[in-house]
Design a protein that fits this description.
The structure holds two protein chains of two kinds. Chain A is mainly beta. Chain A has strands at residues 3-6, 11-14, 19-21, 23-26, 32-38, 44-50, 56-59, 62-65, 75-77, 86-93, 102-104, 108-113. Chain A is globular and about 45 Å long. The mean pLDDT of chain A is 93. Helices cover 0% and strands 51% of the residues of chain B. Chain B is globular, with a radius of gyration of 13 Å. Classes of the chains: A mainly beta, B mainly beta. The A-B interface holds A 4, 32, 34, 36, 42-46, 49, 89, 91, 96-107 and B 4, 6, 31, 33, 35, 40-45, 48, 56, 58, 90, 92-105.
């Protein structure tokens, strides 16, 4: 079945460091891919998305490119801030319906130190 | 513009009891999905409602049921609660095939 695998956390970085969180997926068809962020005690917020191969999603300095050849959607940010500390989830939608059933990875906790 | 709102925020129930969680979708959204998030895990899809009907269902037992009302709001019902049902329950809304927006969740503790 469809699945999403993320790098294990926690990831601890110093402020202004470069961030990469790896995400790979297994899916049939043409899924859409998402990154969601969860701050402590809160629900999930959509960070960025990409709906087809080679699309790049970006938001708030974060970027991820939909790579069909490597089935990956790695999250990157050039310079992290303390306020970026949160849990990041990679997800895919099983069909063209972006609001349909989402398959999530296990989450990667990011901790940014001043 | 209010986002997705869920109630209550926290709830404590005893094994064997029944619980109802509520969700109001983001303004203009017509589709509601429910997810269960165990501690330290990613959310797991329970089911989705559109036009007051269950459209998709994840791998959850029949103890989990739901409803969508004409104003698009939704309820999640869980019967015969087990300790393992303790989790954060997330509601997400979307408009047709657009991306899902999540609420803050309801933290359910079963004792």
């Amino acid at each position: 079945g469809n699945s999403v695998t993320q790098m294990e956390g926690p990831v601890t970085l110093s402020e202004e460091a470069f961030l990469t969180i790896n995400c790979t997926y297994t899916a049939t068809g043409y899924p859409s891919l998402f990154w969601y962020v969860q701050y402590p005690g809160e629900g999930l917020q959509l960070l960025l998305k990409a709906t087809k191969a080679d699309d790049k999603g970006s938001n708030k300095g974060f970027e991820a490119t939909y790579r069909k050849e490597t089935t990956s959607f790695h999250l990157e940010k050039g310079s992290v801030q303390v306020s970026d500390s949160a849990v990041y989830f990679c997800a895919l939608s099983e069909t063209y319906n972006q609001g349909g059933k989402l398959i999530f990875g296990q989450g990667t906790e990011l901790s940014v130190k001043p | 513009d209010a986002g997705v709102t869920q109630s209550p925020t926290h709830l404590i129930k005893t094994r064997g009891q029944q619980v109802t969680l509520r969700c109001s979708p983001k303004s203009g959204h017509d589709t509601v999905s429910w997810y269960q998030q165990a501690l330290g895990q990613g959310p797991q899809f329970i089911f989705q409602y559109y036009e007051e009907e269950e459209r998709q269902r994840g791998n959850f037992p029949d103890r989990f049921s739901g409803h969508q009302f004409p104003n698009y709001s939704s309820e999640l019902n869980v019967n015969a609660l087990l300790l393992g049902d303790s989790a954060l329950y997330l509601c997400a809304s979307s408009l047709r095939q657009g991306a899902a927006f999540f609420g803050q969740g309801t933290r359910l503790t079963v004792v």
